[in-house]
Write a structure and sequence with these properties.
The chain contains 3 helices and 8 strands. By secondary structure, it is α+β, with helices and mostly antiparallel strands. The protein has a single domain (26-141), classed as Kinase associated domain 1, KA1 (TATA-Binding Protein). This is Lipoprotein.
């Protein structure tokens, strides 16, 4: 009887440890806040700086039409796909699809591997910086 109890306790502890590891591997999927576009930039300049940010981080530009760019990242076994919408006022990044990033909807909320959030954070930061540099270049030329 003691042996059976010990086995059950070990099994329960293993299940708890495993579930906490799985939980740590997912984070709430929240699209980043929109990025303000500095005044005076053209749509062509905005699109160029979005593409620059994607390419510099190893993403592919997999879709490009007026006001919308799609980017795809292939990293080892992972794939992430995003849509970046833009106009003269703001740029917004939206999750589209992924593979091997543990995307799920749990209790009505989207979750994904935390690395995705880091990758998107880098893209958002790079876009904001690129737009700022272009705006400064425009000022110095004007």
């Amino acid at each position: 009887m003691r042996f059976v109890t010990l086995i059950l306790v070990l099994a329960a502890l293993s299940a708890i440890a495993f579930s906490s590891q799985v939980m740590a591997r997912s984070a709430p999927l929240v699209d980043p806040d929109p990025i303000d576009v500095p005044a005076g930039l053209t749509d062509k300049q905005i699109a160029k700086e979005i593409k620059r940010a994607l390419l510099q981080r190893g993403w592919e530009v997999t879709g490009d039409k007026s006001g919308e760019i799609e980017g795809t990242l292939h990293l080892r076994t992972h794939m992430a796909k995003i849509r970046i919408g833009y106009d003269s006022k703001q740029v917004s990044i939206t999750y589209l699809d992924s593979n091997d990033l543990e995307y799920a909807e749990k209790r009505g909320k989207r979750v994904i591997h935390p690395n995705y959030l880091g990758w998107i954070g880098f893209i958002a930061t790079d876009i904001k910086a690129n737009l700022g540099v272009t705006a400064l270049d425009n000022e110095s030329e004007g």
